[in-house]
Amino acid sequence: MREYDKSNLVGYFGFGSLVNKHTLRTSYIDIIPASLEGFSRHWQARSRTFENPVSLLSIHEDPASTIKGMIVIDLLENLPLVDEREEGYTRHALSKAQVDVKSADELPDNLYVYIANESEEIKDDGALLQSYLDAVMQGFRNEYGNEGVSHFIDTTKGFERSIMLDRDNPLYPRSVTLCDEEIKFFDAEIRRAGVLRI
After folding, report:
1. Residues forming beta bridges with residue 60, ordered by sequence position
2. Shortest CA distance to 17 belongs to which of 117, 89, 124, 93?
3. SS3 of 141, please?
4. In the chain, where the domains are located
């Protein structure tokens, strides 16, 4: 990583689509494997900008759990763009003690994670969005291999819901392209997780 004044840098922990560097839209400095202690991942129904309610990823406090993800090291000046990207999420401060990386020296002083806001208007379970899920799983596979995808599945609550099959016509604005091997593996993993109609 190039030398920067740490006061001009921030880090934010990605536990979903931010794990996939192909979905990032800022001139970020680095992205490094990390684990977040004291949180679990879950699917949460959201209205967002989609025609029907869908479920997107969020996290909740869970002292017994640790989840893998990535820390994105970015310029402080880019933080408003990340806030805009994470519409419907609130940025929360993290301490360095909550984040496990190979070297704590790699981390800026200001660390954050985005947690989804509760939606009062959505009472039922929104469907999963296949194009969003593809981006998330590809990120975990690229960074952690097949075992990383299995870790993501096994540490995420709420997979037992229907899915919108939009892979060929993606609704997710930062969709990714999959190879045949990825498609076969990802579809098998989400069937294992209990996703309906796949």
Report:
1. 40
2. 89
3. helix
4. 6-193
**Residue 54 carries which side chain, given as an amino acid letter?**
V
CATH code of 6-193, in short, is: 3.10.490.10
Burial of 30 from C-beta contacts in 10 A (0-12 / 13-18 / 19+): middle
Determine the Cα–Cα distance for residues 196 and 180; give it in Å rounded to an integer: 21
pLDDT tens digits for range 57-100: 999 999 999 999 999 999 999 999 999 999 889 999 999 999 99
Give which of 6, 52, 37, 41 is closest to 163, Cα–Cα. 52
Q: Is 21 left (phi over 0), alpha (psi -120 to 50) or beta?
A: alpha
Structure confidence at residue 28 (pLDDT)? 94
Q: What is the 3-state secondary structure of 102-159?
A: CCHHHCCCCEEEEEECCCCCCCCCCEEEHHHHHHHHHHHHHHHHHHHHHHHHHCEECC
Q: Give mean pLDDT, residues 181-188.
A: 97
Of the candidates 192, 183, 106, 121, which has an alpha carbon nearest to the alpha carbon of residue 154? 192
Torsion over CA: 110, 147, 45, 133 (sign): positive
**CB atoms near residue 144 (< 10 Å):** 18
Q: Locate 23 and state its tokens.
A: 């979905």
List pLDDT tens digits, range 115-159: 998 765 555 578 999 999 999 999 999 999 999 999 999 999 999
